[in-house]
Amino acid sequence: MNSQEFVKAIKRYVRDAAIEDTIADLKNPPGRSVPLRERACSDWYNGLRPEDADNVNRVIATSVHQALFGLLAVLDGVRTIDDEGGRFELTYVGAKRILLNDQQAIGLHDLLNAPN
Question: Out of the domains of life, which is the source (predicted)?
Fold first, then answer.
């Protein structure tokens, strides 16, 4: 797995799944004893006009994307989370070890925003 394949998998298995799961939970919260706040959000969402629900879905998608972008920017070292100045090394270990966030290559956060 290389950096491009990693980000493609993150888009599919993390980003898209988080968006779909959040929308599905809004439509129909899981479990038998749904907390009142979750039920209220679901009732509100299900009462929206279709175009308003689409806007909420876009906000959910944007939020998930921004969270992933921020995490990948941290892994790439372009967004810091400490004062020490260290860096993260994300390595895929398969038949061989591959550094996925190589500072000499395009950043993972940039790959996230790249066209498919």
Answer: Bacteria
Give Dmax over CA atoms of the chain in angstroms.
Answer: 52
Amino acid identity, residue 13? Y
pLDDT at position 29 is 95
Do 73 and 111 touch, CB atoms closer than 8 A?
Answer: no
Total count of residues recorded for the chain: 116
Rounded Cα gap, residues 55 and 107, in angstroms: 30
Listed in sequence order, the residues at least 6 apart from 37 whose beta carbon sits closer than 8 Å to its beta carbon are none
Between CA 34 and CA 22 the distance in angstroms is 15
pLDDT digits (tens, 9 = 90+) for 21-37: 999 999 999 988 999 99
Task: Give alpha helix (H) positions in 1-116.
Answer: 3-10, 17-27, 36-46, 50-76, 108-113
Taking the CA of residue 90 as centre, how many other CA atoms within 13 Å lie in the half-sphere pointing to its CB? Answer: 18
Contact 14, 65 (CB under 8 A): no
* CA-wise closest residue to 8 among 49, 48, 68, 62: 68
User: Hey, where are the domains in the chain?
Assistant: 3-113
